[in-house]
């Protein structure tokens, strides 16, 4: 147990369920996020990521369950909870007829910042989000990526304790994506960040912990590293075999417990990706087959899954 | 309080930069100007603003909803309400800010119409009583109409729906005193007492009756209260 584990959660969600009409968008979602932690929500379209974030920010109340921010209930002590939040909604809603400057000033005031504080922060935020050339531009005339930046700027302007970002890097160019990820990581040092994304490398790169949601339920929760290792198992093997591929392939497929084999010919190096049925360790069976046929076993190793594969496996309900 | 001011200031700036508001202003001044000059063709025209006031309150049934329809319906449509409602701003501050903004624009329109009164004072010697009282009544009446329009704007994300429903409510209130004849007994009397027009007429005759002032202030209070509740209830949908 680390020191961090002893700290109370900055965000604490318990038994969250939300119905839109008769249809449950999320069901029985539980999680906690500590101060200085970056949590990533991962899930296919319609999984319930946005719904969960809207509940955290107090925009929609949960049908059942509670969320507290810094100990304040988002429904019962909504105002106190809201004082602690910076939020980038999925649709990046902006007042299109305001200029970037006046929009950010307005949002700062709504967030309760003093005029002096706004003045100091405005310049910093505009620099960080690289909006310098567009201070006076009407938001309606900005491109999608720049609107996204304005959205991020308003979310971080008041240095909130809790930052909720719904797909923060969508629509921005690669250079700015890198900048934004760096920014989020920096913010995540003392602030608490919750973000959603479809981009798996992004999540594994910047998040301390990943929460995979599918059909409104949490199906996995761990660090990106543990998720990949935990699911590694003995179910997938990369085998390099010296022998005629036309013979090797059917023999491997014939082994009891093998669900799939793919063959790669790499300049005469024949490697086979063997997928075993869940829970089966086929290493001995494979070497047996190789020896019996007089081929040579040049390599055999367990292969971990990428986050993509874990994600697909967890959310598509079928074996890969 | 600072946030309510910020909301109001933002909306006021928007009014003065939006074509809708200018069109509304133009229509208001053109139509009321027409009512004002209607009498002047008479061989013995009366030096009075009564036709102006009587016209203005009808025109404003159509124009008040056009001024208020954008206020919250657009926030719902654009999705900006998501940021507004997740900011640490109280619901009454949002409603107050939006309402004050519409009121300011309306007061500017009313101030522009002083032109007619000035003409009257320059070229004739009207009885000032009904003019002062009439303006007081007009401001109260307009403030009430704007409160009605604000409520319907919080109820929908469609500006047209907001405007049409507000016009419906205003027309019903306007002609409520007619129901006095058709509905018998206490109910009829109560409905009759709710009429916007009935309460305005005293003012344009130069009579400032406290009960009329109380009536308009109550209408304003009720509709602003309902607007706040409606906004609160958005959190529950
Ligand atoms: N306002 C709404 N009214 C009715 N149903 C809704 C509403 N918002 C979301 N839903 C439904 O709730 C479910 C979860 O939606 P949500 O927007 O939370 O998904 P998401 O994980 O954010 O998806 P995406 O990756 O596409 O953004 C979906 O099935 C969606 O159709
Ligand atoms: Mg979403």
Chain-wise SSE layout:
The complex is a heterodimer of chains A (320) and B (237).
Chain A (H helix, E strand, L loop, with lengths): L2 H4 L4 E10 L2 E11 L4 E5 L6 H8 L7 E6 L2 E2 L4 H5 L2 E4 L11 H11 L4 H14 L15 H13 L5 E5 L7 H17 L1 E6 L2 H7 L2 E6 L2 E6 L1 H7 L5 E7 L2 H10 L3 E9 L2 E8 L6 H10 L3 E7 L4 H10 L4
Parallel strand pairs in A: 3-8, 3-9, 6-7, 7-8
Antiparallel strand pairs in A: 1-2, 1-4, 4-5, 9-10, 11-13, 11-14, 12-13
Chain B lengths: L1 H14 L3 H20 L11 H19 L1 H9 L2 H6 L4 H22 L1 H10 L4 H28 L3 H16 L1 H7 L2 H9 L2 H9 L5 H25 L3
Helix pairs in contact in B: 1-6, 2-3, 3-8, 3-9, 4-8, 6-8, 6-13, 8-9, 8-12, 8-13, 10-11, 12-13
Bound molecules: adenosine-5'-triphosphate (ATP) and magnesium ion.
What do you see in this structure?
The complex is a heterodimer of chains A (320) and B (237). With 320 residues, chain A is an alpha/beta fold. Chain A has 2 domains: 4-229, P-loop containing nucleotide triphosphate hydrolases (Rossmann fold, 3-Layer(aba) Sandwich), CATH 3.40.50; 232-315, MTH889-like domain (Alpha-Beta Plaits), CATH 3.30.70. Helix content of chain A is 36%, strand content 29%. Chain A contains 12 helices and 14 strands. Chain A has helices spanning 3-6, 49-56, 78-82, 100-110, 115-128, 144-156, 174-190, 200-206, 224-230, 245-254, 283-292, 307-316; strands spanning 11-20, 23-33, 38-42, 64-69, 72-73, 85-88, 162-166, 192-197, 209-214, 217-222, 236-242, 258-266, 269-276, 296-302. In chain A, the strands form 3 sheets. Chain A has a 6-stranded mixed β-sheet with strand order 6-7-8-3-9-10, with helices on both faces. In chain A, helix 4 (100-110) packs across helix 5 (115-128). The longest helix of chain A is centred in the middle third of the chain and has 17 residues, at 174-190. Chain B is an all-alpha fold. Chain B has one domain (2-234). Helix content of chain B is 82%, strand content 0%. Chain B contains 13 helices and no strands. Chain B has helices at 2-15, 19-38, 50-68, 70-78, 81-86, 91-112, 114-123, 128-155, 159-174, 176-182, 185-193, 196-204, 210-234. Chain B is globular and about 60 Å long. The mean pLDDT of chain B is 87. Residues 20, 25, 43, 45-51, 90 of chain A line the site of adenosine-5'-triphosphate.
């Amino acid at each position: 147990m680390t020191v961090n584990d002893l700290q109370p959660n900055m965000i604490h969600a318990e038994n969250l369920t939300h119905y839109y009409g008769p249809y449950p968008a999320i069901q029985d979602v539980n999680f906690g996020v500590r101060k200085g932690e970056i949590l990533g929500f991962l899930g296919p379209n319609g999984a319930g990521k946005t719904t969960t974030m809207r509940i955290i920010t107090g925009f929609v109340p949960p049908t059942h369950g509670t969320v507290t921010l810094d100990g304040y209930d988002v429904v019962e002590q909504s105002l106190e909870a809201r004082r602690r939040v910076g939020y980038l909604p999925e649709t990046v809603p902006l007042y299109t007829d305001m200029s970037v400057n006046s929009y950010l000033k307005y949002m700062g005031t709504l967030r309760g910042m003093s005029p002096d504080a706004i003045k100091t922060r405005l310049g910093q935020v505009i620099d960080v989000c690289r909006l310098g050339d567009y201070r006076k531009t009407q938001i309606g005339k900005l491109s999608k990526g720049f609107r996204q930046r304005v959205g991020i700027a308003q979310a971080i302007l008041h240095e909130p304790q809790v930052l909720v970002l719904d797909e923060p890097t969508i629509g921005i160019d690669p250079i700015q994506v890198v900048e934004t990820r760096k920014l989020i990581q920096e913010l995540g040092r003392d602030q608490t960040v919750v973000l959603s994304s479809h981009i798996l490398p992004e999540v594994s790169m910047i998040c301390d912990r990943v929460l995979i949601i599918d059909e409104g339920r949490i199906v996995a929760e761990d660090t990106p590293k543990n998720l990949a290792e935990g699911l590694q198992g003995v179910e997938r093997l990369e085998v390099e075999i010296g022998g005629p591929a036309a013979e090797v392939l059917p023999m491997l497929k014939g082994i009891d417990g093998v669900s799939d084999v793919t063959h790669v010919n790499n300049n005469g190096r024949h490697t086979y990706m063997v997928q075993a049925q869940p829970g089966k360790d086929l290493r001995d069976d494979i070497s047996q087959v190789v020896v019996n046929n007089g081929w040579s076993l040049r390599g055999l190793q367990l292969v971990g899954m990428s986050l993509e594969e874990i994600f697909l496996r967890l959310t598509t309900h079928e074996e890969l | 309080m600072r946030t309510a001011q910020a909301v109001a200031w933002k909306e006021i700036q928007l009014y003065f930069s939006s074509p809708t508001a200018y069109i509304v202003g133009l229509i208001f001044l053109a139509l009321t100007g027409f009512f004002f000059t209607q009498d002047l063709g008479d061989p013995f025209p009366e030096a009075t603003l009564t036709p102006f006031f009587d016209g203005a309150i009808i025109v404003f049934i159509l124009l008040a909803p056009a001024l208020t329809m954008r206020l919250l319906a657009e926030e719902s449509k654009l999705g900006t309400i998501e940021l507004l409602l997740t900011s640490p701003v109280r619901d009454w501050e949002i409603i107050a800010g939006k309402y004050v903004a519409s009121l300011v624009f309306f007061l500017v329109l009313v101030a522009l119409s002083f032109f007619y009164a000035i003409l009257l004072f320059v070229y004739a010697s009207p009885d000032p009583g009904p003019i002062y009282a009439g303006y007081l009544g007009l401001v109260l009446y307009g403030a009430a109409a704007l409160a009605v329009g604000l409520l319907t704007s919080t109820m929908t994300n469609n500006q047209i729906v907001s405007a049409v429903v507000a016009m419906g409510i205003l027309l019903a209130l306007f002609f409520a005193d007619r129901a006095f004849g058709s509905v018998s007994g206490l109910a009829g009397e109560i409905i009759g007492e709710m009429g916007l027009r009935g309460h305005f007429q005293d003012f344009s005759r130069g009579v400032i009756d406290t009960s009329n002032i109380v009536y308009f202030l109550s209408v304003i209070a009720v509709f602003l209260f309902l607007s706040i509740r409606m906004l609160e209830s958005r959190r529950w949908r």
